[in-house]
Amino acid sequence: MSDSKRVLIVGGVAGGASCAARLRRLDESPEIILFDRGPFVSFANCGLPYYVGKVIKKEDDLLVSSPDLFKRYFNIEVRTESEVTLIDRERREIEIKDLAGGKSYRERYDALVLSPGASPVRPALPGIDLPGIHILRTIPDSNRIREWIAARKPETAVVVGGGFIGLEMTENLVKLGLKVTIVEALAQVMPALDPEMAEPLARHLETKRVQVELEDAVAAFEEGEGGEIVVKTASGRAHRAGLVILAIGVKPEVELAVEAGLELGETGAIRVDEAMRTSDPHIWAVGDAVEMWDVATGVRCHAPLAGPANRQGRVAAASITGHEARCRGAQGTIICGCLGMAAAATGANEKRLRAAGITDYEKIYLHPGNHSGYYPGSTRIHMKLLFSREDGKVLGAQAVGEAGADKRIDVISTAIQLGATVFDLEDAELCYAPQFGAAKDPVNMAGMIAANVVRGDLPLADWSRLEETDAFLLDVRTREEYLRDHIEGVVNIPLLELRERYEELPRDREIWVSCAVGQRSYYSIRFLLQKGFNVKQLSGGIVTYWGCYPI
Ligand code: FAD
Asked: CA 302, CA 294: separation in Å to the nearest integer?
């Protein structure tokens, strides 16, 4: 970019701030001005729930940078409390309203970057504007919640929405001593997971005295006694609360783009190409306001996450300064911790595969310890791996557990980025010492099981068809385990008796084999296949059945 060029950036947090800083590192010459309508730039919105919960003590700790630092480090001018109200594409100008002074003025650009983010959804329900109903996006929002709690000392809260902001707020409110009810319209918490993988998380929340109300949408808010809010739901229930947090999702801020006639995508977010360029060659857009494409399915999607926003900002900066850079799309790698349990996911989940019309995939479940069982303190991770039936390409993974879910999903996320197969996971060389993992890490285990499936050594049955199947159900756990709990209708032949008793099994029916977590049923299947039986595994055994499929 030659001298005297101007780059203007709308929105100074994740996408906008990283774009600005990267621009300067790549090119010293342009004038760069960053506008934000809020009082801060470059703040840690991901830290806000923990600031409300006083885990992060001071407002200052949320500030990653400041206008002064931008000026001194990067020679970038930051204008806060400056709302961009119009884009004049013909003249290549934007109009800015100075929110402190009230005046509007214009600035010329050679390149314009939009990173206005996404705003919390606030449906037009009766009573939505009652005091005590809060959203959480900015530092001022979080201060309002803190002040409300300090002044009113509520004992109860309703969190509307069981996604990651809802769950993080739940954790922090519980830690502040509030009794929390989550009201969620879907049949599961954490919609980024498949329903059965969200089940262990929902049960965990209930053990922490969080009431989880699923499949019940909020219908109205009413004023209750003593300043309480009554949250009324579609099913007719009423939850009283001293505080309500609305966390039912976000919608991309596209007003500026729409008024300027920029093209939107199928999801309603701003359409961009791989260089983050919009339909106007002088305007780039990044972050929560843009439409992405799902790397696993190719389907257009909206992926409002901090990591992608930061990386997209860098791509836009490279593109503006004439460097090579390409956005790879969104993989949807997420993690959310709530009261001692974490849920993480990457790539496609089964819901997304089905919605994209992709059917030639397989799924396996496993429930390994986060580290070697013989080392004290091992806890279980529930894992699901999705992969292509034909060539074993890894499509997605989900993990839920008290420890170690993050590490496994990060490894699998990288594998997906590199186009890896289950055979690569099987062979991955991962760090191991007893307190950190296992010689066969859960990632290796997932790869080994899935590789057995792709090679044809381990045919799979589908848990979701258990109710309707007329297959013969075989449980190969010990008699004691079987007597403790078992799937209705199973026949118990312990693995250790199978070689003597296999002739008791039918040769004219499919046999679905289960055990505790999948190991003994695998041994049984290898034996029975070689004896000519038509056998399939119920993946992950009874722990999948009880842990993930509540019947
Ligand atoms: P934002 O960071 O929202 O920044 C947009 C900025 O643009 C805002 O400051 C806004 O005021 C400003 N703006 C908008 N319109 C205008 C205008 N017309 N003129 C001037 N300024 C304007 N993601 C994760 O990956 N992990 C997490 O743990 C996580 N936790 C989160 C917790 C909370 C409470 C929230 C709210 C979000 C969380 N996110 C998390 C999401 C993540 O913060 C966003 O994906 C990311 O910040 C998006 O960056 P962005 O630049 O697109 O938008």
From this structure: 9
Give the helix ranges, DSSP H, for 241-324. Answer: 255-259, 306-320
Edge to edge, the sheet with strand 104-108 lists 82-88, 93-98, 104-108
Please give the pLDDT value at position 548.
76
Ligand 1 pocket mutation pick from 19, 305, 314 by most atoms within 8 angstroms of CB: 305
C-alpha 426 – ligand 1 centre gap (Å): 38
Q: Is the CB of 36 under 6 A from ligand 1?
A: yes
Query: Can 336 be counted among the known catalytic residues?
Result: no
- Give the pLDDT confidence score for residue 3 in this predicted structure: 54
- Residue 44 to residue 426: CA distance in whole angstroms: 37
Structure confidence at residue 546 (pLDDT): 85
137 lines ligand 1 (CB under 6 A): yes
**What average pLDDT does the segment 3-20 reach?**
93
Task: Report the distance separating Cα 464 and Cα 468, nearest Å.
Answer: 9
Identify the pLDDT of residue 547.
77
What is the rounded distance in angstroms from the CA atom of residue 394 to the CA atom of residue 295? Answer: 12
- The pLDDT of residue 226 is 86
Put simply, whether the predicted model's pTM sits higher than 0.90 gets the answer yes
Q: How far apart are CA 530 and CA 15, in angstroms?
A: 57
Residue ID of nearest Cα to ligand 1 atom 12: 11
User: Hey, which of 97, 159, 256, 288 would you mutate to test ligand 1's pocket, going by the most ligand atoms within 8 Å of its Cβ?
Assistant: 288
Q: How far apart are CA 511 and CA 15, in angstroms?
A: 53
Residue 38 beta carbon below 6 angstroms from any ligand 1 atom? yes
Q: Can you tell me which residue has the tokens 């939009």?
A: 114
Average pLDDT value for residue range 499-528? 97
3-state secondary structure of 528: helix
**Per-residue model confidence as pLDDT tens digits over 399-423:** 999 999 999 999 999 999 999 999 9
- Chain-wide mean pLDDT for the chain? 96
Whether residue 1 has pLDDT greater than 70: no
Q: What is the pLDDT of residue 2?
A: 47
Q: 49 C-alpha vs ligand 1 centroid, how far in Å?
A: 14
Contacts of 522 (CB under 8 A, 6+ apart): 449, 452, 458, 537
Q: Is the CB of 86 under 6 A from ligand 1?
A: no
